[in-house]
Structure formats: C-alpha cells, structure tokens
Amino acid sequence: MTCRSRTIALSPSERERYDRQIGAGVLTEEGQLRLKQATAFITRTGGMGGPASLMLTMAGVGNVIIAHGGEMISPDLNRQLLGSEDVVGKLRAPDFGNYLRSMNHFVNVEALPYEPDAAQASELAERSQVILACPPGFEERMRLNEAAVKARVPLIDAAQWGMTGTLIVVRPGETACLRCIYPEAPPFEELFPVVGAISCAIGSLAALEAIKILSQTGQPLWGKMLTYDGFHGQTNIVELTRDPNCPCCGELV
Ligand SMILES: [Zn+2]
C-alpha cells in the first residue's frame, strides 16, 4: 500500500467528522489518513456487504467500490440495510450507491450494477487495497479469492447461514486462502435461511477488519476463521493452515 500521509492532511472538517475514532484505543491521525487514501472493494452489498460498505463509508475510507446486480425484492428486506421498501422492484446498486454518498460526502463511491466476472474482479483487485467478499455463492467467492491472491490484496470473506456467520481474513502469500480451506465446493442452497441481525453483525466485523488493515491499527484476524453461532451464543476462532499444494496460492511466496 502506498502511504502518502506525510503530504496529505485531513481538513479541519474531516478532523471534526472523525474525532470520535481518532485517539487512544482507536485510530491515529495517520491511520485516518491511510483510510482516506485507500480503496475498498465490496461485493455483494446485501445482508453483509451492505453494512460493511456503510461502516467503511462512515469511517472515511476514501474510495468505496460496491458491486451488486439485480433488483431488490421483498424477501431482501429482512437484512439488506442499504435498501428500503421504496427500492423494491428497482435496480439495487445505483440506489445503494446514492445512500452511501448521502452518508459521507468525503468518500468517493462507485456503484457497479453487476457481479464482476474473473477479468473484472482482477481489474478491481488491482485498484483496491482490500476486498470484502460477501456473495452467497461459492463460485463467486472463489473468483474473488483468486483475484485477491493474484493481486496480492488482502481478502476478507464473510459468510452467513441461519443465525451463524463466519469471517476469514486472507493475506495472500502468507496465510491460507479460501481454496486452501475449501478444495471442493460445499453444498449450496439458493434461498438459504438467514436472520438480518447476523448478516449485519458479520458485515460490521468484516468492515472492522478492513479498517484495521487499511489504517494499520490493532491486530487483524490474519489466517483465522471466526465463527459466531448466534443460535447457541458461541464464538469460535481457529487458525487456518495453508495448503502448500493449493492450486490458487501454493506457488506464492
Ligand atoms: Zn490457497
């Protein structure tokens, strides 16, 4: 990551805006500057990616790119924080983008109304300092993992089912990637059950990991999987093992 924080300063109004997150136990002013100069790419921006992109926008990440295809439907309303009943039947991305812009005019928001294919994911990875992968399907998840590994960009993978959510934080070349952990596609159901509160919780945790990584604050969950089983009220963190024969990251040193 290029850091030009010595030559670019926060304006007085930005300093005021972020006052509550600069200080002991939170960000340094230099960390806030790093956020300002950073680009985060979030796909998809429904249940988990929505709150994640909102938290990154409100925190002052300078460039937020979101990607989400399709129109909003009624069953999305239990968890898709960036939407509202007014968006039902409309394309989501433009509306979600406008909502994010309304929350912080210091942030450049780019809203893509589609899910990136492999080439687009690679191009977006090259432009970003962190990727937050929040899609429901395994194939899309792996595509983002591959793009992140190729560009050597940190990947935060968020997943949800029912009242349980998981978070995996990948540092390409150093930690396990998603392919190391899932050599085969796990079973997938199109309309899986999910409670919005877990989507929002995991999305916010994904954003927090991104904020730590981009601002160089605290200890990111590098190479770990965090699971929150909300049904039973249990949290678990496991260290993931990198596969030296992984077809995605095995060659990376
Ligand atoms: Zn791997």
Q: How would you describe this protein?
A:
With 253 residues, the chain is α/β, with parallel strands linked by helices. Helices cover 34% and strands 18% of the residues. It is built from eight helices and eight strands, in the order H-H-E-H-E-H-E-H-E-H-E-E-H-H-E-E. The chain has an eight-stranded mixed β-sheet with strand order 3-2-1-4-5-6-7-8, sandwiched between helices. Helix 5 packs across helix 6. The longest helix is centred in the last third of the chain and has 20 residues. The chain is globular and about 50 Å long. The protein binds zinc ion. Zinc ion binds next to helix 7. The site of zinc ion (ZN) has 8 residues, from helix 7.
Structural class: alpha/beta
Query: What is the number of beta strands?
Result: 8
Helix content: 25-40%
Q: Gap between N and C termini, in Å?
A: 18 Å
For the largest beta sheet, what order do the strands appear in spatially? 3-2-1-4-5-6-7-8
Q: Bound small molecules, which ones? A: zinc ion
Overall number of domains:
1
H/E order of the elements?
HHEHEHEHEHEEHHEE
Average pLDDT for all residues: 94
- Our estimate of the beta-strand percent is 15-25%
The CATH superfamily turns out to be NAD(P)-binding Rossmann-like Domain
CATH fold call: Rossmann fold
Q: Could you tell me the radius of gyration in angstroms?
A: 17 Å
